[in-house]
Amino acid sequence: MNNKFVISAVIMAVMSLALGFVVHAWLLGPDYKSLVALFRPEADQMGFFPFMIVAHVLIGIGFTWIYRMGREAKPFLGQGVRFGLAVAVLTIIPTYLIY
User: Fold this and answer.
1) Got the DSSP string for 26-56?
2) What are the tens digits of pLDDT across the range 37-57?
3) Are the C-beta atoms of 25 and 42 separated by less than 8 Å?
């Protein structure tokens, strides 16, 4: 593991956390407020915040590792599409097929 990997993983973790905040706090926040009876009280939620940080660090490491292992000396667009398909096959598609 070199410095480039660590920097990429940290940036991915921060971006994952930031995008999660944008989606869930800003975009879906008003909808969540109407369903407050379905969720834990905010004080209980904050007790689980360290687990969320660990989850986003693992997301950063995992995405960086998958991308770097499949990187080749080819045009970046094709590699990006391949990376997106790999992530979809590993995460999104199985989740929706299960549920």
Assistant:
1) IISHHHHHTTGGGS--HHHHHHTHHHHHHHH
2) 999 998 898 999 999 999 999
3) no
59-84 tens-digit pLDDT? 999 999 988 888 888 888 988 899 89
CA 97 to chain centre: 20
Specify whether the CB–CB gap between 5 and 60 falls below 8 A.
no
3-state secondary structure of 75: coil
Secondary element (H or E) of residue 57: helix 49-70
Residues 6 or more apart in contact with residue 79 via CB below 8 angstroms? 70, 71, 72
